[in-house]
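Exercise: predict the fold of this chain.
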Amino acid sequence: MTTGARTGENPLGYEKIGKLIVRFSVPAIVSMLVNAIYNIVDQIFIGQGIGTLGMAATNVAFPLVTLCTAVALLFGIGGASFFNLKLGAGETESAGRAMGASITLLVIVGTVLGVLSVTLLNPMLGAFGATETVMPFARPYTLIFALGVPCMVFATGAAHLIRADGSPTYAMISMVSGAVFNLVFDPIFLFALDMGIEGIALATTLSQVLSASISVYYFLRKFKSMPLKKEYMRPRAKTGKAICALGMAAFVNQMAMAIVQVAMNNMLSHYGALSVYGSEIPLAGAGAIAKINFLFMGITIGIAQGCQPINGFNYGAKKYGRVIKTYRTALLSATLISVFFFLIFQLFPHLVIEVFGRGDQLYFEFSVRYLRIFMLATFINGLQPVASNFFTSIGRAKLGVFMSLTRQVIFLLPLVLILPVFFGIEGVLYSGPIADAAAALLAFLFSAGELRTLRKMKADL
């Protein structure tokens, strides 16, 4: 089979799989890393300039970040998946309606979420685990961040839609531009203008405005698959249902992460108070490590999401052999990345923790121990996101949702709530690797079964 350009045929259906994965996954990884970098940069500057209480405050606010990402992925990945499935099947009109509806839903739901975040700020932070000592830092930081929630939701979701339109580089630029802005202005607002934690939040909010503006320009001037008619922007019930079904796996996974983050914050605060560490040190240390884990998972999820248009198009076009090869290549890539991070976490935990500030000896001791134990099964953590996104991209939305629930809800959340009752704060640490191993095993079993089905479908053609 030739790999050159073919008149009238989408490259997703004939270009080499490895080349396509690089083309689509690298921008997807960068987009995911941008979200991680926002939080890591904030955490680093706060750790160096404000201290342990500031880091604890960002950890308390982190579930809101995850909630925003959940909404963005619901309509971003859902819309992109539906768009590519319809485009691959040659249904251009339906593809255009999927894209338009996704854009509108991102705007509406993102705005509602922002308003609710501002209105319910204090009870929200209390539920997220803020102690009386941390609240004076968490409140101003989260309030300013909440003002930019609509832009964050839109920019994050739009990146997936732009990538589905065949412009992964532009999607990457829209996200990277905001990250660079945040990196430059964090130290300016914090140190040069002496704005404290409010300056960190302001830089983050303005960076989201920049990314959202770049995305809006794309939809107005550069969208290329078909003209985005005004009538496409009105969501229809049937289209919205299909978008939500295909985006539900990613949404549920992020929502589960938010729920687990809230549970962990409260358990760390409660059982930390019963240990030598106190309430604030576990909140700060776990917060720093959560950002590192978000960075690692951003790469593996980016690989999985980058394969979405490849899987979706080829499944719609009944090119099942290409779907199988895409899955295998994605899994190998994610596993290699997972092993690399596992070695970093286990061999150099001190260097990782020192990036966020030294703190006192107890903070350093807890953070290193937490990193090594909680991330003990990192080397197999690429399997679950690859499997979840794989099922979603081929239209198996329910199975994709189930796979996304395995680690966070089915395994990790119960373990976080139960193990500390018997083992104190150590129970929180060991809940991570147990959940990771169980989720990876299920992902392997279900993926193997789906691959057998695809091989049979290929043989029956």
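Check your answer against the key: The first helix runs from residue 17 to 49.
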